[in-house]
Design goal:
about 600 residues; alpha/beta; ABC transporter transmembrane region fold; Rossmann fold; 3 domains; six-stranded mixed beta sheet; four-stranded antiparallel beta sheet; 10 strands; about 65% helix; elongated
Length: about 600
């Protein structure tokens, strides 16, 4: 099983969110179990060498603390001291080298798991999301994985292990009071750290939430730069952004103040513990129960032990903050996929391309039905158009055909196959769309056309551009195919963007074509030119045409007139005009509007 699959399992609600986040990292770590075990062995080796250094130093001092006549240079002990110092540092560095691949691969895999899951979520989620906030959560969460593993495995665990080992050595070699003071200091330090950090975590989490919110607002404002300018709302946007920053600033200040309080408490505990240990050791030397080497050993242990302990508070805070970031990222993975492939789903087998809507009903929200018992057939190679006022349910037909949502009742079939029983990939591979608002990637024109079939040879991309009547335009540009179209294609005109969309769809070469109000945003002249191209590519393909302007559907094999989510009339253009019903009334109104606009 791929490690990513572990990420979407639901744990019981009683599990602590922090522990749940840590547990989700294990499959990624265990994939490199050999490296993990070697790194742990190096970690233990580094700590054993580190703890042995003060013991050897004690023996050196005691060997030198002799009368002149008995004094011998303890060369072997001095060499052992040097080797142990080197080993403790080298083992720690080797551990980081060995483990680097594990953390980097885990960051990559988890980022990919989130990315894949976000693409698997329904259109509903993506219509409601704030892109800036989500990208911030993923970015912080991926970095937090590396911090979390590093701090937990290679900082906190060895520090606690070293302190317990030192307490045991002091207890055995000196007396129980030394061990008790050491463990007591550790317990008090951890107690203060955990208590105060738990209290201040609420400020850290709130600050992170506000940071994501401010970032999301900034991205949203910049993406809608033109709209901001149209309405002269630069100051309004600045105030809105600053409102989030003011809240973030307040939370960040509270976080900083509580951090200062925590540092003072930690420093006080360490100072008391160190003073008591040195006092006890000095009294032992004066009383003759301890040697000068024992005092040096205790002092060396204190320097060695309390220096990392001083960072333990920082590390614990970092772990808590990293857990909060990983938790936010994991919450994205907990979002259920509204549309899933059925167990054992097969690839769609398109033989002819017939599309059938069977008594389809649908609602985005239970209290607001959109479609009511809609049924029609698009024979293979024919075209059916859906027309009607805004909100009649036309575009919903396309979204259901693409299976962005599942039908509430009824079924949609392609060549007799219920689209809920085939894989989503194979379904969408069979359908091409030219949307009303063509959104392009901020990349080259070549990239945007080739996106229809990324593995297509360059010749096929050029042929698609020629068929969409955009090749001459591309070749006339100074940078030609390498021209960057800008954010969402803003550097191109509406007609140019639509031709890119047509070329992209032609390159995909789908059996079923959806034209979703593909020319409604264009002027009449451009619309007529592009409409002719659309009719050309629709020939021999099963086509669903969703239109507001009735002049674009005159040639359709059947026209469905929709009102309030129901089909109220159907037939060819001439038949519907002759019926003198809803369609004929719409046609008359649009003709009057066009005549009035031309005067």
């Amino acid at each position: 099983m791929h490690p990513a699959s572990h990420f979407v399992l639901d744990e019981p609600p009683t599990v602590n969110p922090g522990l749940r986040s840590i547990s989700r990292l294990f499959p990624y770590m265990w994939e490199f179990r050999g490296r993990v075990l070697l790194a742990l062995a190096l970690l233990i080796g580094a700590k054993l060498a580190s703890v042995a250094v003060p013991l050897v130093l004690k023996d050196i001092v005691d060997a030198l603390d002799q009368p002149r006549s008995e004094l011998v240079l303890p060369l072997a002990l001095i060499l052992a001291y040097g080797v142990l110092r080197f080993a403790s540092t080298t083992f720690a560095d080797l551990r980081d080298v060995v483990f680097a691949k594990v953390t980097q691969r885990a960051m990559r895999r988890i980022s990919m798991a989130v990315f894949d899951h976000l693409h698997g979520l329904s259109l509903r989620f993506h219509l409601e999301r704030h892109t800036g906030g989500i990208t911030r959560d993923i970015e912080r969460g991926a970095k937090a994985v590396s911090s979390l593993v590093g701090y937990l495995l290679f900082r906190i665990t060895p520090t606690v292990l070293e302190i317990v080992m030192v307490a045991g050595i002091l207890f055995v070699k000196l007396d129980w009071v030394f061990g008790l003071i050491t463990l007591g200091t550790l317990a008090a330090y951890i107690g203060f750290t955990v208590t105060i950090t738990e209290w201040r975590t609420q400020f850290v989490r709130r600050a992170n939430t506000l940071d994501s919110q401010a970032y999301g607002r900034a991205i949203d404002s910049l993406l809608n730069y033109e709209t901001v300018k149209y309405f002269g709302n630069e100051r309004y946007e600045a105030r809105r952004y600053d409102g989030s920053l003011i809240e973030w600033e307040n939370m960040a200040m509270k976080s900083q103040r509580t951090l200062g309080l925590l540092n003072i408490a930690q420093a006080g505990v360490i100072a008391i513990g160190v003073t008591l240990l040195v006092l006890r050791a000095a009294a032992g030397v004066v009383n003759g129960t301890l040697t000068l080497g024992d005092l040096v050993m205790v002092n060396a242990f204190l320097l060695q032990m309390f220096q990392p302990l001083g960072f333990l508070g920082v590390m614990y805070r970092q772990v808590k903050e990293s857990l909060a970031d990983v938790e936010r990222m994991c919450s994205l993975l907990q979002r259920p996929r509204e549309v899933e492939d059925a167990p054992g789903a097969r690839a769609l087998d398109v033989t002819a391309g017939e599309v059938v809507f069977e008594h389809v009903s649908f609602a985005y929200n239970p209290d607001r039905p959109i479609l009511h018992d809609v049924g029609f057939t698009i024979p293979a190679g024919r075209s059916v158009a859906a027309v009607g006022a805004s909100g009649a349910g036309k575009s919903t037909l396309a979204r259901l055909l693409f299976r962005f949502y599942d039908v509430g009742a009824g079924a949609i079939r392609i060549d007799g196959q219920d689209i809920r029983h085939v894989t989503q990939d194979s379904l969408r591979a069979a359908i091409g769309v030219v949307p009303q608002d063509t959104v392009l990637f901020n990349d080259s024109i070549y990239y945007n056309i080739a996106y229809g079939r990324p593995d297509a040879p360059r010749g096929a991309v050029i042929a698609a551009a020629r068929a969409a009547h955009i090749l001459d335009f591309i070749e006339s540009l100074p940078q030609g195919w390498d021209t960057v179209v800008g954010e969402r294609g803003l550097k191109l005109s509406g007609g140019e963007k639509q031709r890119v969309a047509i070329a992209r769809t032609l390159l995909k070469n789908p059996a079923i074509l959806v034209l979703d109000e593909a020319t409604s945003a264009l002027d009449t002249r451009t619309e007529k030119a592009i409409q002719a191209e659309l009719l050309e590519i629709a020939k021999s393909r099963t086509s669903l045409i969703i239109a507001h302007r009735l002049s674009t559907v005159v040639e359709a094999d059947e026209i469905l007139v929709m009102e309030g989510g129901r089909i109220v009339e159907r037939g060819r253009h001439a038949d519907l005009l002759a019926r003198d019903g809803v369609y004929a009334h719409m046609w008359a109104l649009q003709q009057q509007a066009e005549e009035g606009g031309g005067q």
